[in-house]
Amino acid sequence: MSGPLAGIRILEVGVMLAGPYATMMLADLGAEVIKVEPPGGEISRQVGDSYFASLNRNKRSVCLDLASEEGQRRLSDLAADAHALLVNMKPSVIRRLGLTYEALSRVNPRLVCVALTGYGLDGGDDPAFDYVVQAATGVAAMTGDPDGPPTLPGYSSADNSTGLTAALGLLAQIVSGRGGQVDVSLRDVMLSQLNYRASAYLNDGVAPRRHPYGAHSYYVPAQLFPTGDGYLALFITHDGFWRSFCAEAGIGGFATMAERSARRDEVLPLVTAVLATDTALGWEQRLRPLGIPAAAVRSLPEALEATPEAIVTAGEHRLVAGSVKIAGFTPEYRPAPALDEYSARCQSS
Q1: 126/118 Cα distance (integer angstroms)
Q2: Residues designated as active site
Q3: The pTM is what?
Q4: Is the bond preceding 221 in cis, omega lying within 30 degrees of 0?
Q5: For residue 167, what are the CA distances in angstroms to 197, 331, 345?
């Protein structure tokens, strides 16, 4: 079975993470992705081979100087046969280089143009790196220990989330059968992902506050807990989970979700004390067969070692596989492209 996106051609003028991640997911599903790079290559090639490979497998590369007449001519030729163009740059650069639907509709009125920016195509050119956006949208302020500083997660959550959203917007417009401009920003994506947190404030005036060990604001107990060895994530969201946990742990009381939430300061010490009697892995092995959501905190190396089925090989690099599984389709993982290899292929054919 060919990939579900076989026959779809996408141009990418991507930089670093968000844009390249979006198009790599589409390439994993069978789309032909042509990565348009400046002379010398996209900047993430300088970060390291494994970094570049992790975001650019299954693509082709063509070098164009988009500031030149020849580069613009070749861009128009590529756009004429493409279904979509995805670009992540500053709005002023996107417009100056003619990477909008307004500029390219003359050569392909059905082209879908996705602009992935920090604050929107009309939002200006202020720097919008992942960490900056997490700080600006309240994510950093609500993360971490209550008595500690704001905290950032250990991976690029804003870039990755925006890449996912951009890929969704691109496909939605292709399915519509119409060309047009799609506008996706890091700021808007992160604000949208604060859904119930934002709703609590907008409708009830409840501002988010931090709890120790990342505890959930509604569910109790739902957080990290220290154990006899390591930390355990326990996420009890309803009374059935609580009854099963109590039976295994040998405790009782606090029968309803409302009572556990209201008496958080009594519930948490009780749970913490009982979890200290076994290791994190021990509790995981005891609770999971009961259907209780629980997992020992693992390092990334430990997590990868525990899931060998999620590791694939693309050329000389071992990478994490795509996350979309489709019945009957096994993705082919090709290595990230050599710089301008698509031009060389076209010239030889």
Answers
A1: 8
A2: 159
A3: 0.93
A4: yes
A5: 25, 18, 27
The answer to whether the beta carbons of residues 225 and 231 sit under 8 Å apart is yes
Instruction: Please give the Cα distance from 101 to 107 (Å, whole number).
Output: 10
Overall size of the chain counted in residues: 349
Q: Is 163:95 a contact under the CB 8 Å cutoff?
A: no
Residue 344: per-residue pLDDT: 65
Query: Burial of 265 by CB count in 10 Å (0-12 exposed, 13-18 middle, 19+ buried)?
Result: exposed
CA pair distance 336, 270, nearest whole angstrom: 52
CA atoms within 13 A on the CB side of 240: 4
User: Which 8-state DSSP code applies to residue 112?
Assistant: E
β-strands 231-235, 222-226 pairing: antiparallel
Number of CB atoms found within 10 A of residue 196's CB = 10
Tokens standing for residue 143: 């993360």
Answer yes or no: CATH 3.40.50.2000 is held by domain 9-193+310-347: no
* Both tokens assigned to 330: 């096994």
Q: Where are the domains of the chain?
A: 9-193+310-347, 231-296
pLDDT in tens, 86-123: 999 999 999 999 999 999 999 999 999 999 999 999 99
